[in-house]
Amino acid sequence: MAYDKFNILKTTAVPLPIENVDTDQIIPARFLKATERKGFGDNLFRDWRYNPDNTPKEDFVLNNPTFGGKILVGGKNFGSGSSREHAAWAVYDYGFRCVVSSFFADIFKNNCLNIGVLPVQVSAPFLEKIFEAIYADPKTELVVNLPEQTITLTSTGESESFDINNYKKDNMLNGFDDIDYLLNIKENIREFAEDTPL
Amino acid sequence: MKKTLFDKVWDSHVVHKIENGPDVLFIDRHMVHEVTSPVAFLGLKSRGIPVMYPGRTFATADHNTPTINQHLPVKDPLSANQLKALEENSKAHGISYWGLGHEKNGIVHVVGPEYGITQPGATIVCGDSHTSTHGAFGAIAFGIGTSEVEMVLATQCIMQQKAKSMRINVNGKLSKGVTPKDVALYIISKLTTSGATGYFVEYAGDVFRNMTMEGRMTVCNLSIEMGARGGMIAPDEKTFEYIKGREFTPVGADWDKAMEYWQTLKTDEGATFDKEITFDAADIEPMITYGTNPGMGIGISNGIPQAESVEGGVATYKKSLQYMAFNEGDNMIGKPIDFVFLGSCTNGRIEDFRAFASIVKGRKKADNVTAWLVPGSHKVESAIKEEGILDILHDAGFELREPGCSACLAMNDDKVPAGKYAVSTSNRNFEGRQGPGSRTLLASPLVAAAAAVTGMVTDPRELMQEELV
């Protein structure tokens, strides 16, 4: 599925300084029954965000109007557990285009890259600085520069570079997905398959 | 060049390499279930392309299915709709479909091996993180997202960077009451839930050599819980014996040819791993988790660790204990429980039911416990009946349900109520995993059985009636 191109993102950010946020928290299993990809943002962090009677939990960050923006900043080992891409869809559908953490779980990271959410891995000290800066001033903006592969805290000017492979970077910059690429080399795949018995 | 088992299987499936980018990896077998596939099929539709090799894809319904009255229409309209979508998509694209009510239906990672779809040296993917189960046969098997499900349907390939390699050795002899589940929970407790992220794990050493295929599946299944892309064990005579004669296993000359390849599937002497860790089997006792991720496990006779003694943030740790309503230093033994769940792709195989039955035989289910015993497949269900296990369970006051993922992720009606404690043989104890507000203690079938008959966390070694083989 094609997605919006990603280049430079300058925005405030939402802090979620919890470690090991698993995809069951990002989107609980009972909301995986849809057969289309829409509306998942409504249930992003459902059980942290709402009480059982569906009233908002006031102490949860998404219910706090002080914080907002297109970047979600999470604690170490973000996105562990289930492979459900619905978790990445929920993050995207809610309005985030980038997730920042000091460590990402593998499948979640891949899923994000496949749907146009940029996972930005920073050092643990820099993550702490980001949290501190946001709490000190929720209007603090972050600049995520994909062409340069840097993330900058505008309040202090501090910056760090992040890794992304050239292929995925190119995809994100142009809004391409892997299937476009694979369909282009279908003949190579066909030859390979003929030599590979079932 | 000396190669690891992982290198051998991965490298032989690379169709194309992209510099400073992913490999295009050919996928031999693709398993599909109802939850993570519908959007992938929609993607094919919007692109106007077919499934490239429908014969390499196998569909079964498991995540969303009821575990009672499977002969009746599914009551929840959303679940029914998703099951219908899988059936229609499978039929439209010529994919084999083992839906609800089909004699071969069951949890995707249980039926794959049962019917010989899972084979050594194969690449196997599924939109489910516990696909790592199939690594028990020396396959490269891992979970993928829905975008990747669409890629495999469309082109039989995915694009991923090759993972780093890790070997985990466990040597020595396991003590009484220590099962493959305990070995896995022990390793995860040592590595944490992110300790193997970015790696593909090979399990080696006497403990895995001596394990049954069911046990190896349990271990490989849980690889993802320490963050690993997958886990695998070199195939041996036990593996070949297990797969021989199954429906999708090659026969005759094809078998001989396959065996020639399969026998090469081991790590070369002297091959190096990016990381290697060794544990002693004697250090492992029956395990139980006390927190909200699978790395928060301890030997059952131990107390809950102090926040300061664990790796990671104190605030996150305290939040976790608060959710569980446990305190640092608490003993796990004697904690009252409300539910017991035996089942899932981790521990829903015949051996798990045998272990459970060995403890409950001649005893009675505790009155305060609701027990859900859910076989991983119809084949497991049949074996439970044929081996007389069902009679033992009935005599002890237990009922057997019908196959499916059930309370492992509680997408169907098998939900543990808020605030209640469940001893579960499944794979995740995340907040709300078994129902909103539920509290999960992960453990082996033996620990689950001991809890089921006593109504509290109990050391199964005290109830063991005979030495386990």
Automatic annotation (TrEMBL), chain A:
BP GO annotations: L-leucine biosynthetic process
GO CC terms: 3-isopropylmalate dehydratase complex
Keywords: Amino-acid biosynthesis, Branched-chain amino acid biosynthesis, Leucine biosynthesis, Lyase
EC class of the enzyme, as a word: lyase
Matches recorded under Pfam families: Aconitase_C (PF00694)
E.C. designation(s): 4.2.1.33
Gene Ontology molecular function terms on file: 3-isopropylmalate dehydratase activity
Catalytic activity: (2R,3S)-3-isopropylmalate = (2S)-2-isopropylmalate
Statement: the UniProt record of this protein carries the keyword Repressor: no
Gene3D superfamilies in the record: Aconitase, domain 4 (3.20.19.10)
Positions of the Aconitase A/isopropylmalate dehydratase small subunit swivel domain: 5-123
Pathway(s) per entry: Amino-acid biosynthesis; L-leucine biosynthesis; L-leucine from 3-methyl-2-oxobutanoate: step 2/4
Subunit structure: Heterodimer of LeuC and LeuD.
Family: Belongs to the LeuD family. LeuD type 1 subfamily.
Cited function: Catalyzes the isomerization between 2-isopropylmalate and 3-isopropylmalate, via the formation of 2-isopropylmaleate.
Protein's name according to its UniProt entry: 3-isopropylmalate dehydratase small subunit
TrEMBL record, chain B:
Catalytic reaction equation(s): (2R,3S)-3-isopropylmalate = (2S)-2-isopropylmalate
Record EC number: 4.2.1.33
Protein family per UniProt: Belongs to the aconitase/IPM isomerase family. LeuC type 1 subfamily.
PANTHER family attached to this UniProt entry: 3-ISOPROPYLMALATE DEHYDRATASE (PTHR43822:SF9), HOMOACONITASE, MITOCHONDRIAL-RELATED (PTHR43822)
InterPro entries linked: 3-IsopropMal_deHydase_lsu, Acnase/IPM_dHydase_lsu_aba_1/3, Acoase/IPM_deHydtase_lsu_aba, Aconitase_4Fe-4S_BS, Aconitase_4Fe-4S_dom, IPM_dehydratase_rel_enz, IPMI_cat
Function, as annotated: Catalyzes the isomerization between 2-isopropylmalate and 3-isopropylmalate, via the formation of 2-isopropylmaleate.
GO annotation, biological process: L-leucine biosynthetic process
Ranges of residues in domain Aconitase/3-isopropylmalate dehydratase large subunit alpha/beta/alpha: 7-455
The protein's assembly and partners: Heterodimer of LeuC and LeuD.
Keywords: 4Fe-4S, Amino-acid biosynthesis, Branched-chain amino acid biosynthesis, Iron, Iron-sulfur, Leucine biosynthesis, Lyase, Metal-binding
Gene Ontology molecular-function annotations: 3-isopropylmalate dehydratase activity; 4 iron, 4 sulfur cluster binding; metal ion binding
Record text on cofactor binding: Binds 1 [4Fe-4S] cluster per subunit.
Cofactor: [4Fe-4S] cluster
Organism whose genome encodes this protein: Arenibacter troitsensis
Pfam family, one: Aconitase
Pathway where this protein functions: Amino-acid biosynthesis; L-leucine biosynthesis; L-leucine from 3-methyl-2-oxobutanoate: step 2/4
Protein residues bound to [4Fe-4S] cluster: 345, 405, 408
Name by which UniProt lists this protein: 3-isopropylmalate dehydratase large subunit
Primary enzyme class: lyase
